[in-house]
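Researcher: Let's try something more involved. This one mixes different molecule types, so please make sure each is placed in the same coordinate frame as the others.
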Amino acid sequence: MGALALYLRQVGAAIRVSFADRANFWLQLGGMTVNNGFVLLLWFMFFAGFRSVGGWRLADVALMIGILALSVGLAGVFAGGYRDMAAVILRDDVDALLTQPRAILPRLLARESIASAWGDVIVGAILLARFAALRWSDLPVLLFVLCGSLTVFLATGVLFASLAFWVRGARSFARDVVDFVILLSSYPGSIYSGAMKVVVYTFVPAGFVVLVPVAVLREHGLPGLLTMAGAAVGYAALAGTVFMAGLRRYRG
Amino acid sequence: MTSTRPLAAVERALAVLRVGADATLAGRAVLLGRGVFYLLVIALLATFWDLVAAERLPGTLSSLLPAGGLAVYVGVTEWITLSVPAIHLRLEDDIRSGAIEAHLLRPASYPVLRISESCGGLLVRQGMLGAIGVVALLLSGHAVPSAAMWICLVVLGVLGGFVGILLFALVGMSAFWLRRTIPIYLCVQKMSFLLGGLFAPLTLYPVWLRGISEASPFAAQLYWPAVIVVSPGAATVLRAFTYEVLWIAILSTLLAMIWRVGLQRMLRQGI
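Model: All components are placed in one shared frame. Result:
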């Protein structure tokens, strides 16, 4: 069986497990949807009162949060293991995978599907379809930047979770960094300048998770597309390299 | 079995409060990380509101923004929000794992002990984050509140944090009925953000929502302690204090009732 087929089967099993307790599944999905609803209500109220912030209007923020919700949601549904990967490493659960002939990282990512992440997927899809002022012709670019955004987000999660191979306190740090990415991805890009701009395009790459995708969809420039592709490849390569280095250390 | 001597109960609660404070102090790295997060959040929100104020678009609510900006207001609301320990997770763990049974054998009320423990954590976090907030305020060049205002802020902020602990303890108690409290937690957290005025004073809200929000426990947690920096005055302070004490009484009563019902359910049919 190929690596992709194995991954899909494992993700399929993880999703079925998350569905198994129906009441819990619907409760988590509903809870996340309501949670996102409150955030959106805040933004709707804000733009009803102030109309604009640094040139960003409601449709731009809807696009930004739609991309963020879909990226975080898809990561949670199809690679939910990223969320607690540091804990898995620290608990030595990797041992069991080391005896098997398949790549370890995809198996760690596919070991869990987060039920509440479906709420993010639904809200993200509604926002992009209804409030983000996108046209059908934007669909190919949207799919492209969504892939890039998802890759950068997941790579960040893997990168910081991999620190658990070296540092015992990496669990809460990795989760905090991912939460930072989500937090910084929830505000219009116009508020970042100076040192904060450096942070959101490097250490906590909210810039590549939402800000570049929004710019690409609004401006349709080739440089934006190349930047997005470069960031996705760069962060994925960095996360893969750090994970493999950590794994070698763990084996040793 | 619970001791009937009130003084002994208070002493026990204070001892557990010290344990909670010591445990929070022991996690220095976590405390420091929370401090960095606090700085980041207030820098972000202060910049955000400064940008909104700078635009001054005609026909918008910009004219209602205070002259000094909202940096101090969001500094206070975030100070309280980030200081409240995750008591709901503690309750959920104990209830789901069955560890709560061991506590029931002890001569002390389980919810009181957990709340006291969280209050210890709250005080340490508020002390640390408060110090960071004050230093950041002094360095930022924003107007600094008067000495009397600082005293009011400390009193109302601690009471607001206590309202937060009671709210999240209620979330934790839902574990008697639900396997996971996270969906309820997320809803309560976001209601706290919205109705509590975490990002903006309720005075900027539409009239219909403002009335509901002001009377909610979420406003007692965040808005009322923070609003005194944008609308100073004895009447505001008194109103804030009244709302906080009222909600502490209501939430404590509700918590005691839910604890009794939940415990009966657990003893009757398990989790």
